[in-house]
Amino acid sequence: MTRKIALITGASRGLGKSTALHLAAQGIDIIGTYYSKAEEAQAVVAQIEQLGGRAAMLQLDVSKSATFDGFVGEVGRTLKEVFAQQQFDFLINNAGIGTHASFVETTEEQFDQMVAIHLKGPFFLTQKLLARIVDGGRIINISSGLARFSLPGYAAYASMKGAVEVLTRYQAKELGARGISVNTLAPGAIETDFGGGAVRDNAGINAFVASNTALGRVGLPDDIGGAISTLLADGSKWINGQRIEASGGMFV
């Protein structure tokens, strides 16, 4: 039986790494991308291989859409040489960075960086990868709880995530003819190095999040990796065009 393949952007660390390992544990092979730390990326490949799966890591800067044609060619070569296939099954648009500045203090440079990474990148990368996604495949776009609730300092970042949620519905509508479903997964605050590791390392922020979360704690990467793998499981095929928040009930 042919194994399914997931392409995950930003798979060398944080939520992307957790997602890759959860999917690998379910028998799904991985093509991941990393921005700069090749050694971290190869360590994830080794972990996946220990689980009995296959994986490859490709360098990608999602903010540079001019490189996407070359990247898509590299994906094609990797599919053929590593997996003996021509297409993959799942695309998870996960790669991203945070920026923290009040609305008044946000610069055009910060705003443009958020557009390039969180909106333009997933928009055109998905567009260019469509021919490599199987009919009946699935796409997950990563958003944020900050697109639902508002905390000072995230106006630019959260605006991009709000746009991604609208994009998801349009993709679901337009790609339905190919049987491709598209959903948004919106994490709450998670203990990672995202945003300088503030949620993980700042005790005050950690306690604030925990006290405003129904389940009484801050999220962990495995909470999100598990949620994404569940959303890609066979029993979730009929979920389409939806925003699903995995936040433990933050600010409910």
Quick one: overall form?
A: globular
And the CATH topology?
Rossmann fold
Strand content: 15-25%
How many DSSP H or I helices?
8
The string of secondary-structure elements, in order, is: EHEHEHEHEHEHHHE
Cα-atom radius of gyration: 17 Å
For CATH, the homologous superfamily is named as NAD(P)-binding Rossmann-like Domain
CATH-level-2 architecture: 3-Layer(aba) Sandwich
| Mean of residue pLDDT values | 96
Helix content: 40-55%
Spatial strand arrangement across the major sheet: 3-2-1-4-5-6-7
Structural class: alpha/beta
Instruction: Tell me the count of domains.
Output: 1
GO molecular function, one term: oxidoreductase activity
Family: Belongs to the short-chain dehydrogenases/reductases (SDR) family.
InterPro entries: NAD(P)-bd_dom_sf, SDR_fam
Protein name: SDR family oxidoreductase
Summarize the SSE layout with pairings.
Blueprint: E1 5-8, H1 14-25, E2 29-34, H2 38-50, E3 55-59, H3 68-83, E4 88-93, H4 108-129, E5 133-142, H5 155-175, E6 181-187, H6 198-201, H7 203-211, H8 221-231, E7 243-246
Parallel strand pairs: 1-2, 1-4, 2-3, 4-5, 5-6, 6-7
Helix pairs in contact: 1-8, 4-5
Family: Belongs to the short-chain dehydrogenases/reductases (SDR) family.
GO molecular function: oxidoreductase activity
Pfam families: adh_short_C2
